[in-house]
Amino acid sequence: MSLELRHPLKIAPPRDTAARQAFVSALRGYILNDLAGELRSAYISEVAPQFERGHGRPPESEDEVHRAMISNTCFKFYSSIRYNAQEMVWRSVIPHAEHTLPETCSKIEAHAGSAGGTLSLDPTLELPRNVARLDVHLMPGGYAPDESPLAGAIYDQGLAVFAAGMMGHNLDDIGLSMAHYVKHRFPRLEPQRILDCGTTVGHNAVPWAQTFPQAEVHAIDVSAAVLRYGHGRAESLGFPVHFHQMDATELRFPPEYFDVVFSSMFLHELPLRDIGRFFEQAHRVLRKGGLLLNMELPPNRELCAYDRFYLDWDCYYNLEPFYRGFRDQNPQDLVVAGGFRAADYLQFVVPQYSYMPESEFAAEVGGTRRVSGDTGRLSTGVQWFGFGAWKSE
Amino acid sequence: MSAPLDANARRQSFFEAESVDRLVSMVLELATELWVVRERLYVLEREAGRLGLPLSEAIEAHELTPEEQAQLAEMRRRMLGELMRTVGRDHRPPLRSFESPTV
Questions:
Q1: pTM higher than 0.95 for the full model?
Q2: CB 3.0 to 4.6 Å from A230: which of A8, A74, A133, A202, for a disulfide?
Q3: Would you say residue B56 has pLDDT above 80?
Q4: What is the C-alpha to C-alpha distance for residues A383 and A356, in angstroms, rounded to an integer?
Q5: Which chain B residue is nearest to residue A85, measuring alpha carbons?
């Protein structure tokens, strides 16, 4: 089912556009659930046995699975259809987003300041190459083509089509799941200042303001386009978030300023060197006893060869070249390299907050869920992987 | 319209015969457009019935004016443009071997 965004910046598209978006969204849902099942069946019944006959053993790595799958007809159709669907996501929203841009700008202006959030842009900021030179997710024009909020509107509306109703009622399930994990798992933390890094349109920053209304929530991104839109989006929802145009590898906040430094689906878009620099910065701006928390794709080392291969698809075919390099790392090593102690490392898996009663979610926190094929793989029943570290007292 | 509709990258193909990838695009675009029309017709028929209009008979009896014919011709042209959007695009060949991406 297609997702209807539930915030006042949304401008209802004409019926034909809405029908087109609903169809593309349904296509995405079909690919990620039904076709993904067909792909796994083809691997189990044809590809793996054929590999085993030739090698005397099953495929042991994601590369071996990938090489074996490339010539499989089911893989070709799955990939071709998924690649097309990704293009169609953007094509289904761009004309409407562009056509309604003046109205969107008016709404952003009308809501500015109504919730108490702010927007600070830095025209001197140099865009990192991985943002400036790459149309990540095959998004035409990329995330930072200029200062117009159009790219933010395209991303917000496109993500709603892309998610096929599986990422929360306002694309906020990851933020809600992580914030409520902290609330239930560490009730004494009571964060007063929270930072969301790589926020794009702030869809996962708003849930922190929702969950911890006493906290001051800051959100950064390098793209003025998504920040302008995200600021209006948060204000229109009535949650004060302070947006800053800032690079996560060069945070301009004082030392020990935050209780929580958060990121979601951010690290896998960064070169490894930048992840290291971000974690060093996160360590610097966290107060003693503060928490670094990242929602991410699960590390390859905790998945079987087939699941590693399946998640790799985006790295090879969705213009996310750093995706695999990140997942090949041990996340504990990454945070330790940033200055955190190995003993202070934590990781966990949580279900989606948006689709279960709060009491059930609370019971799951601290439970026994482990990384599995459903972790981070967008489909019905997806569960989220989180990792990070405490800053030692 | 000035915002780009295509990502700045060579399109990936997956089949040995690149033409199959183009055909998959066409089929999916066709399916999308077919759905848009079906949904609109679905709504139209129900609204007409609700309003007590004998729409089916009127459709059968309708004769297109020159203006309507021109409008439909333009709509067909736009639809064909979407249908054929990948025919002229340069494509990356399917991967036959690869190395881990540089990070």
A1: no
A2: A202
A3: no
A4: 12
A5: B28
Rounded Cα gap, residues B81 and A202, in angstroms: 36
Instruction: Confirm or reject contact between A146 and chain B (CB < 8 A).
Output: no
Tokens of B99: 């190395």
Nearest to A367 by CA among A349, A344, A380: A349
Please judge whether A79 and B14 are an interchain contact, meaning their C-beta atoms are less than 8 angstroms apart: yes
Instruction: Tally Cβ neighbours within 10 Å of residue A92.
Output: 26
Cα–Cα distance list, A9 to A210, A235, B61 (Å): 18, 10, 44
- β-strand partners of A216: A193
Q: Which two tokens stand for residue A29?
A: 């849902």
Distance between CA atoms of residues B83 and A304, nearest Å: 39
Q: What radius of gyration, in Å, describes the C-alpha atoms of chain B?
A: 21
CB atoms within 10 A of CB A29: 20
pLDDT of residue A368: 80
d(CA A39, CA A31): 10
Which residue among B9, B32, B95 sits closest to A20, beta carbon to beta carbon? Answer: B32
Query: A74 — contact with chain B (CB < 8 Å)?
Result: no
Question: In degrees, to the nearest 5, what angle opens at C-alpha A317 toward C-alphas A37 and B89?
Answer: 120
Closest to A144 measured CA to CA, from A157, A159, A125, A164: A125
A139 → closest Cβ in B7, B20, B103 = B7
- As for the ipTM of the complex, it is 0.78
User: Residue A236 above 70 pLDDT?
Assistant: yes
Q: Does B51 touch chain A (CB under 8 A)?
A: no
Q: Which helix (H) or strand (E) holds A386?
A: strand A384-390
Query: By the CB < 8 Å criterion, does B42 face chain A?
Result: no
**CA gap A238, A116 in Å, rounded:** 8
Residue type, A12: A
Provide the token pair at A218.
Answer: 């800051």
Mean pLDDT over A117-137 rounds to 95
Rounded-to-10 torsion of CA B24, B30, B33, B34: -120
Nearest CB to B103 within list A138, A271, A316? A271
Q: Check if B78 contacts A (Cβ < 8 Å).
A: no
Q: Which residues of A177-215 are buried (b: 16+ CB within 10 A; e: fewer)?
A: bbbbbbbbebeebebebbbbbbbbbbbbbbbbbbbbeeb
Classified as helix, coil or strand, A179 is: helix
